[in-house]
Amino acid sequence: MGRLSWQPATVTDAFAETPQVRTLELDVTGWTGHLPGQHVDVRLTADDGYQAARSYSIASAPEEKGPRLTVERIDAGEVSPYLVDELRTGDRIEVRGPIGGFFVWHAGLGGPVLLLAGGAGIVPLAAMLRHRVASGSDAAVRLIYSSRSLGEVIYREELDRLATHEGVDVVHTLTREQPAGWRGFGRRVDRELLAEAAWPASSSPLTYVCGPTAFVEKVAGSLVQLGYDPRTIRTERFGPTGR
Amino acid sequence: MSVFSRGFRGRRQEGPPGRVPPGQYLVDDFPVLSAGPTPETPVEEWTFTITGDVDAPRQWSWEEFLALPSETITTDIHCVTRWSKLDTVWEGVSVDTLLEGVDTSAEYVLAFCDGGYTTNLPLEDVTDGKAWVAVSYDGEPLEAEHGAPARLLVPHLYLWKSAKWIRGLQLLAEDESGFWEALGYHDRGDPWQEQRHWGD
Amino acid sequence: MDSDLTLDGNLTLDGNAAAGVLAEVFVSECTTAMTRCDACGAVEMVGALKAYVQAPGTVLRCRHCESVLMRVVRGAGSCWVDVRGLTWMQFSVATPGRSSGADAV
Ligand SMILES: Cc1cc2nc3c(=O)[nH]c(=O)nc-3n(C[C@H](O)[C@H](O)[C@H](O)COP(=O)(O)OP(=O)(O)OC[C@H]3O[C@@H](n4cnc5c(N)ncnc54)[C@H](O)[C@@H]3O)c2cc1C
């Protein structure tokens, strides 16, 4: 692996996941594959040379066509509204990546694996889940995914399908609004919810927590209180955005 | 060579001619920059100190500091991360007031802050009505993330010189690099000359 | 957003967020390198450090004692890296005397 620099990328497909969230499929010059959980930096350049760069996790599994990114629109944000509302198939942007070896899970690491997602934090964790299934791994994986409402759940149908595989569990919690007859959780991910829905600390899962910074701090703190070894917990804070 | 992104403008506005230094863009909000945890020193424990090459060190408590004559400053500010903000309104004590009667041969100052941040300036860039220790912004006490209870304000230089959470000035015969100046950032930082990095 | 978190807490990211700037200058993947904090002795991976990226440069701090461990500043044509806060960094490299094929497992 050599030093990384910016590569041109062409948008080959773009589709809505929810009213706030869109997935972009990219064709990146010289892309040599990635590991689930890695991200890219995206750079936009205005016609007068002004530039803005942000990080986005890779949503696709290494086995799939891509890379794909999934971006949530942050109102008043500089980059995400452009990626969600403006960018069209055929447009070009620049990316640097794949990067980051720390927040990575692949089949070779085995299980059990505990994934905790808040909002758009599902993106790198979905790449891990897709890879778990596409690679034929038998690692036990449980995803606990917090969204504000059912309409804001990203990849909902696909997660339902993934959960039909032996050894894959998906647990949803809806923090603001639950539809009539909702049978999942209806509150924030806290210590009690984790004690009920996550594997016990004694099963020593590899744990990945991703989402807005406030979500990650809360969840990682609760896991440590419940006796999980901090060294088995990997976190990816997305920043102040989100809920 | 960059790839241009069709229709991308970013969060920027046009500025009146002559007001915005080269390579800078206007913003409406007040972005928060942070290189570490926000210090939260209670004002009862806060002091402002002039030390170093001086006949005798000076120190003010928060109450004494507020009793000093203060000025209202309306000025443009320019951050090296490329945003500028016009007509910001501050209230603070002029550094001239703080150095009144101080006998020194120093030619440089190092501003020091809670949280360990430092920045260096030639003495002549903070005297003669060019710098203040500000305690309020836009008519309100400073917010924690903008430097409460007090920050340096040196509006004619890039904003990293306007050290947040300031606790004092050390007067020095020889220039000593601050937190960013020791790692690639320009010693003086004049936005009109685009003095961003070493060698600019 | 949780009200018990300060705004500043919300500006913190993980060291992994610095992977891009580091990958521009280091040939080895940096976020899985181990570091030792020279102030408190804590040993952590770069990816697990506290990252502040909303600043003139990227600042990586110790999660335990808040000391500045690494700083990266990107200028036009130059990149400056300060590692004064570290006692050492440990990178994984190929095992001597074995083929790279064996290491790839
Ligand atoms: C490693 C990593 C991976 C990521 N992956 C994804 C992903 O897969 N999908 C995704 O949607 N996002 C992801 N993010 C978040 C993403 O990088 C952007 O932060 C997000 O898209 C917002 O960018 P923006 O330019 O739209 O908003 P910005 O212009 O950066 O601002 C967003 C909002 O946050 C507030 N804000 C931002 N910075 C500050 C500040 N310094 N002080 C106070 N308020 C502030 C602003 O007021 C604004 O309302 C990831 C982040 C990281 C670090």
Automatic annotation (TrEMBL), chain A:
GO MF annotation terms: 2 iron, 2 sulfur cluster binding; oxidoreductase activity
PROSITE patterns referenced in this protein's UniProt entry, alphabetically: FAD_FR
Database matches in CDD domains: FNR_iron_sulfur_binding_3
Domain FAD-binding FR-type, chain residue ranges per copy: 4-105
Cofactor needs: FAD
Lineage top rank: taxon: Bacteria
Ranges in coiled-coil conformation: none
Keyword match Transport: no
Keywords, in A-Z order: 2Fe-2S, Iron, Iron-sulfur, Metal-binding
Protein name: Flavodoxin reductases (Ferredoxin-NADPH reductases) family 1
Origin organism lineage: Bacteria, Bacillati, Actinomycetota, Acidimicrobiia, Acidimicrobiales
Automatic annotation (TrEMBL), chain C:
Entry-linked Pfam families: DUF6510 (PF20120)
The organism's place on the tree of life at top rank: Bacteria
Alphabetical list of InterPro entries matching this protein: DUF6510 (IPR045423)
Name of this protein: Uncharacterized protein
Source organism (scientific name): uncultured Acidimicrobiales bacterium
